[in-house]
Design goal:
Blueprint lengths: L12 H11 L7 H14 L2 E5 L2 H11 L7 E5 L4 H8 L4 E5 L21 E4 L11 H11 L2 E5 L7 E2 L2 E2 L6 E5 L12 E5 L5 H8 L5 H5 L19 H11 L2 H18 L1 H5 L4 E2 L6 E2 L6 E3 L3 H13 L17 H4 E3 L6 H5 L2 E3 L8 H17 L1
Parallel strand pairs: 2-3, 2-4, 3-13, 4-5, 5-8
Antiparallel strand pairs: 1-9, 6-7, 6-11, 8-9, 10-12, 12-14
Helix pairs in contact: 1-8, 2-8, 3-4, 3-6, 9-14
């Protein structure tokens, strides 16, 4: 059996988890949480806070942007539900726009026509760790005085024109879910690119209290002063993550090698127009978060999934566009025409991809895909 995904691990993760447990200080913001914060600050060059999920990082960003009822937030429909929910929970209406078929990212040229006097923010989603066209998006945001919240859930270590994703907009939100390049089981990270938001972000993350200041000795007692929730992950989770961060370069190099091997082995099908392969924009340095192919249509994809499953190869498709859901009737609308979002989402097939995926299994998977199209 070739599973679709396995969580990333590190030989140091178990050691660090054991150390965290033995310290008897396993709640949030202890030793390994602080180590993670220092690592990210040094790597990304900006302030950040570890959270319990990317969903919660997005929720915190929505609060910090003071999203309220009647506001509108622009984003692609081809994304995970958390991207929208974080802003819906604050009362916003979601305005979906079409995607680019080459990268599956938001079409930057369709953002400005979707802006109204109620628009408060733009949420670009860096699909598969490949950057959106951030120069154009930031220009639009500046013109209309809008917040930009990067949903960089899949994009840790990816870059756009040399700048790390998540550090370009006002806020960046990352995921450390089991399926991501770096994992703490469940977890996330909020990037804060404007220092004026740091103090309030700490308060929101600590249930609306100034508890973080208290533990730093800046005040003699803490109290409830704002809205918030418990967004701190356990130090055990942080310990598991920190072991991987210490091996960041090696993990990404391994994933890029797997990505390159898939690409080379499937070129023959690309050349014969049976499939399309991923497009990496010239401005982007990607992180090999996933490898997907695009087949002709939904029927072909379903048949290929079934064929591969019969050979014990587990592949999956991805998002069902949010604007096609029943919830969209209440919480959002699609701006313009759905030319690519639904059609392209029905063509994507994600192949098995995880740390230490053996070359033998990559070869077998690719050979079976080639066999499927030969028989067809």
């Amino acid at each position: 059996m070739i599973p679709f995904c396995q969580s990333t691990n590190s030989h140091k993760s178990l050691q660090y988890v054991t150390e965290a447990i033995n310290s008897k200080r396993i709640c949030g913001d202890n030793r390994f949480t602080k180590k993670c914060h220092t690592w990210f600050k040094n790597y990304l060059g900006v302030d950040c806070l570890l959270t319990t999920s990317c969903t919660h990082a997005l929720e915190m960003a929505a609060i910090l942007c003071e999203i309220k009822e009647g506001d509108e937030v622009i984003m692609p429909s081809y994304t995970f539900v958390s991207t929208a929910n974080a802003f819906v929970m604050r009362g916003a209406k979601i305005i979906f726009v079409d995607i680019r078929p080459d990268t599956m990212n938001i079409d930057e040229n369709l953002i400005e026509p979707a802006i109204t006097k109620r628009t408060k923010a733009i949420v670009p989603v860096h699909y598969a760790g490949v950057a959106c066209e951030m120069d154009k998006i930031m220009q639009i945001a500046k013109k209309y005085n809008l917040f930009v919240i990067e949903d960089a859930a899949q994009a840790m270590t990816s870059a756009y024109n040399g700048q790390k994703l998540g550090t370009i907009g006002d806020f960046g939100c990352f995921s450390f879910h089991e399926t991501k390049n770096f994992s703490m089981g469940e977890g996330g990270l909020l990037i804060i690119n404007n220092r004026k938001f740091i103090k309030r972000a700490e308060i929101i993350r600590e249930k609306g209290t100034n508890r973080s200041q208290f533990f730093r000795g800046e005040i003699d007692k803490y109290s409830w002063i704002d809205i918030g929730s418990s967004y701190l992950p356990s130090d055990i989770n942080a310990a598991y993550l920190y072991g991987q961060l210490e091996e960041c370069k090696q993990i990404i190099e391994e994933r890029l090698k797997i990505w390159d091997n898939y690409y080379k082995l499937l070129l023959t099908l690309k050349d014969s127009n049976d499939i399309e392969l991923q497009t990496i924009s010239t401005e982007c340095k990607h992180n090999a978060h996933m490898f997907y192919i695009k087949v002709r249509d939904l029927k072909t994809r379903n048949n290929l999934i079934k064929f591969l499953r019969e050979h014990k190869i587990y592949t999956v498709f991805h998002y069902i566009p949010l604007h096609t859901s029943s919830a969209c009737k209440k919480f959002g609308k699609f701006s313009g025409d759905d030319i690519f979002t639904t059609k392209e989402s029905e063509r994507i097939l994600r192949l098995p991809f995880y740390q230490n995926l053996e070359q033998e299994k990559i070869n077998f998977t690719c050979n079976q895909i080639i066999n499927f199209f030969r028989k067809k």
